[in-house]
């Protein structure tokens, strides 16, 4: 699915500001690497997915391995990455923060790769990631309040991924700016309303994205207090932990709900062990029951999205496989 997406040029949604008629050109002229997989951010994270899959044991003897490396090497050339980075610099609010986050993730997975060909590509993507990091440092001090919607503009989802990428790249200035902004935005939040947070085209839980980010930046003692308070309204029966039925799989906005189940499941698997650790010291039976109960919802949340991720419906299949992969990785890690 990842290979199919990154080699499919159309349909393509080109979301950019045209300053003159000269800007109305085929997407590949602006985006020599990422003018595929329906839109720029989906292309970036499908390249991330393909690179991640090449790390697996299955990939070692897979028939698709060589082609995947050829495609990635072609798309992520030094010349192409310089062009993509230049476009971001020239359009500093474009794809902010969702596309930025996946660019940082792509660079991180390449530079951490045990596959020599991928590590070589990491030398090319560094310019893209460094551009994102510089844009974040310029942007965040000017942000008055976070975006809490359950879609691409969500501040917490993007910042968590950029933070992880910045740590891997030793960009301590970026880590500090993100940690400071996260505290400013979210430190005072408590008892998030998980009953009413969803809307009909969400693919993220605003509450769980926020908790995921704060779990990355708070100290152990701070998190023990903050997380149990923030998640106090979340129970296994919460609507937020129940998959929403997609009535029209051909509707690109409604199909976001498949991704919601996958992203919520992944968050739950990251956060529940942290709640369990908090509940153990001192012993808190109620919190422990809450943490273990959340985990019972994971399989039902994931099931619709796993099926849609490899379906023939392009409004779902151009992006869902990345979220499916990340949820599956969390589940394997949690089972171990």
What does this 3D model show about the protein?
The chain is mainly alpha-helical and 336 residues long. The chain has helices at residues 2-6, 27-30, 40-53, 57-60, 65-75, 78-90, 98-111, 116-139, 155-168, 172-186, 206-217, 220-230, 256-280, 285-295, 298-309, 314-317, 320-335. The model has no long low-confidence stretch (mean pLDDT 96).
Features:
336 residues
Give the secondary structure arrangement, pairings included.
Blueprint: H1 2-6, H2 27-30, H3 40-53, H4 57-60, H5 65-75, H6 78-90, H7 98-111, H8 116-139, H9 155-168, H10 172-186, H11 206-217, H12 220-230, H13 256-280, H14 285-295, H15 298-309, H16 314-317, H17 320-335
Helix pairs in contact: 3-7, 6-8, 7-8, 7-9, 8-10, 9-10, 9-11, 10-11, 11-13, 13-14, 13-15, 13-17, 15-17
Main sheet overview: none
CA-based shape: globular
Whole-number radius of gyration?
20 Å
Q: Work out the helicity level.
A: 55-70%
What do the pLDDT scores average to?
A: 96
The total beta strand count reads 0
Q: Low-confidence parts, pLDDT < 50 over ≥5 residues?
A: none
Listing every helix as H and every strand as E from the N terminus to the C terminus, the arrangement reads HHHHHHHHHHHHHHHHH
Cα separation of the termini: 27 Å
Task: Give a short overview.
The chain has 336 residues and is mainly alpha-helical. The chain has helices at residues 2-6, 27-30, 40-53, 57-60, 65-75, 78-90, 98-111, 116-139, 155-168, 172-186, 206-217, 220-230, 256-280, 285-295, 298-309, 314-317, 320-335.
